Amino acid sequence: MQRQRFGGSATIRIRVTGGVLLVAHLALVAWLTLRPLDVPWVTPPNLHPLAGIRADLALGAREAARRIGEGLALLAPLGVLLPAVHGRLAVSPLASLIRTAVAGALISLGIALLQTGVPGRVVDVDSLLLNTAGVVLAHLAVVPAGRAWLRRRDAGDVGDAGEDGDTWAERFVTVREEPAQGRTPTIPRVGIAP
C-alpha cells in the first residue's frame, strides 16, 4: 500500500471558509456599487488616471483620506480570500501576488463596466486603480505570513498523529495500487441480426 500525504482538514476548512466569505463579500460589494442612486445630477466619468485622486487631495487631508481609504478598502479582502479559496500552501509568492492582483483588477473592471448601466453611477478609472492597490496591499500584508505559518504548523503536525505516526489525513486518505489481475477479458463478436 502506498500513501500520499495531503494538506489535511485545516486546508479544506480554509478553502471552504474562504469560498463562503468570498461569495458574501462579493454580494456586499455588488450591493454597494451596483444599486441605483437617486441623485439630482451626476459627475462626468473620470477616464484620466489619477485625476480623481488629485481632486480628492484638493478637498483636504481628512476628506482625501476618507475617499482614498474607501477605494482601497472596497476590494481589499479579495487579496486574502482569493488565495484562501485557491488553497495551496506551496506556491510562488510572486505568482500568487500576480494572480491575485489580476483577478482583483478584473473584478474591479467588471464592476466599472456594470456601473455604466446603473442610474446615478459613473465610471471612475481611479477606483479601478485604488481597488487593485487595496487587493495587492492586503495580499502582501497577510498571505505570505499566513502561508508560512500554515506550512510550519503542517510540518510540525504531530499533535493529531495516530499510534503508528500517521497524521489524520494519512489515516483516512490512502492511495492504493492494485496488483495486476491478468489479461483484460475480451468478448467474442456477435453477429447482427437481419
TrEMBL record:
InterPro entries: Teicoplanin_resist-assoc (IPR053150), VanZ-like (IPR006976). The keyword Electron transport does not apply. It comes from the Bacteria. Pfam families: VanZ (PF04892). The chain crosses the membrane at residues 12-34, 68-85, 97-116, 128-150. Keywords: Membrane, Transmembrane, Transmembrane helix. Residues 23-141 form the VanZ-like domain. This is VanZ family protein. It comes from Streptomyces camelliae.
